[in-house]
TrEMBL record:
UniProt keyword Repeat, yes or no: yes
Protein name in the entry: ANK1 protein
UniProt repeat feature ANK, residue ranges: 117-149, 151-179, 187-219, 221-253, 254-286, 287-319, 320-352, 353-385, 391-423
PROSITE patterns, sorted: ANK_REP_REGION (PS50297), ANK_REPEAT (PS50088)
InterPro entries linked to this entry: Ankyrin_rpt (IPR002110), Ankyrin_rpt-contain_sf (IPR036770)
Species in which this protein is naturally found: Symbiodinium natans
The organism's place on the tree of life at top rank: Eukaryota
UniProt keyword list: ANK repeat, Repeat
Amino acid sequence: MLRVVMMTSGEEVLSLSETSLEDLAKAGKDHARGLKEHLALLTGHTRFRQRLLRGDDILSDSTKLDSPSVLHLVLLSFCPPDDSHLLEFAAALAVDNANVVEAFLQIPCDPNLSLNVGITFLSMASQHGSLNAAKLLLEARADISKPDSHAGRMPLHWACARGHAELVRCLLESRADASRAWSHGEMRLTPLHLASATGHTEASQVLIDADAAIDSAAHSTGVTPLWSACVAGQVATARLLIEAGADVNKSTLDGTTPLIVASKENQVEVVRLLIRFKADKDHVAASGLSALHVASTLGHVDVLHSLLTIGADIEAASPMGARPLHMACVAGHMEAVRLLIRQRANPHHADRQGVTPLMTACCTGRADLAQLLVQAGADSNHGTMVQGNRTDIFPLHVACYNGDAEIAQVLVNGRADLTASTSQGLTPMDIARAHEHHNVTELLEAAQERPRRRRRVKGPP
């Protein structure tokens, strides 16, 4: 029989029969360490804080158990480490040096202390993917839910953000909360948010298998793990989440869906993935803008092409009445304008202020866009309604005011009315002369002279 008694009181803690010792031997636990692990369940103190003595000798962990025998148990208090020990321990955690970690815990040192930077020991191991060190700390009963004093992250957050899948699995098996959020500014990010945003597919799969909430929304923003993956262009992770049941149309609180944010960030492959999984191509955010509006504004031609291929509404109007073609013209994206025209965007549509894409091109001095629009049939004589229903100004007036001879020539070639007047009665020529734009004045005079010459030309005798 093997008896274990408290060194101080002599109270018996454990008594093992020969049969029990044989069972320990079969389990490979017939040594001092195995006995300490068993005693940890009885005393609540981990093996690191136990010392077993036979007489005056302290047993090493590898010492074989024999019977009959009486062993004395001593339970140690934690010893505060000095700075040099902490530095050595931090280095060991970073490189997963299990021997140094074991020796540190055997001092014994409190596994729930933090390094000088405020990060806990377990978070440090999780950050670096140090699986063996993490297992030792967990055995020493490191608090799996203790946040860092500086960043506020818990060990599982670090492991997920760095993509250490095996460590994620280890922490979850030790009952880490797969859906516990980390507060980051206004957002509360779950482990799945972090793994998804950083494209760690294997870690994401481990979390999904552990029933992590797939569509959990970050507190005050509504950002989901799928949204996080899409904005970062993490195609594989986005696919994994969708196949696991993530809602492709779940939006943030401002109505921005994964498709809209992927379009904004020019994440072409993510856009195509979302399209394959039937994302709502015409969903409008609280701003009144769809994915097509966003892509047009930013000139993301490949995204535009993907959206137009599946029939996204090319004439969808913003709250101000602007169509995608307007927005591409305002931002001056030539290739986007060319693509929209090729896909039959209507160049005549005016926004709520009566501004057409052609007027926009004239106001921004983009002769190339004006030429493209005129060639597509844009009306050079469509005026802007700025006073009720009254036409106040035409594209040619704008070109004359700006002294832009190149745009004026494009408009004249597009049969702009040389005599059209503003509500104040000013013609293009009046405006050009008033601002002393002589090159534009000469161009207009030449254009006015051409019809007269044609009228004077007689037919053959």
